[in-house]
Write a structure and sequence with these properties.
InterPro entries: Transposase_IS66_Orf2. By secondary structure, the protein is an alpha+beta fold. It has two helices and seven strands, in the order βαββββαββ.
Length: 120
């Protein structure tokens, strides 16, 4: 199905700023060269520009790429600008980001998994 992002196994955000003039080929090259990841894996890659009000998402569906673009009219994304080049996020963190919240929610209840690690 066109743009069924719920099938993505992982979600990555490119921290810092991305040139929002890049299209599918430019973003796929950025994933491969700068982030050292495979753009053809079953993952969603998110990018944000300097103005914090525009987001692009790149997803490989198996037969082609889907490029989604979202522009907020009166608010901004709480995008991490730290030194990390790429960061994996959970589906909950993705929802927070899309709702205008920071993905770092210090008061969020963390779940304990069977490997002894915390997850959101």
């Amino acid at each position: 199905m066109f743009g069924d992002l719920s099938k993505a196994e992982k979600i990555y955000i490119a921290c810092g700023y991305t040139d929002m003039r890049k299209s599918i080929d430019g973003l796929a090259a950025l994933v491969q060269q700068n982030l050292q990841l495979n753009p053809f894996q079953n993952s969603l890659f998110l990018f944000c520009g300097r103005r914090h009000d525009r987001l692009k998402a790149l997803y490989w569906e198996g037969d082609g790429f889907v490029l989604l673009y979202k522009r907020l009219e009166k608010s901004k994304f709480q995008w991490p600008r730290n030194a990390e080049a790429v960061r994996g996020i959970t589906r909950q963190e993705f929802r927070w980001l899309m709702e205008g919240l920071s993905i770092d929610q210090p008061k969020a209840v963390k779940k304990w998994d069977s490997t002894g690690c915390f997850s959101v």
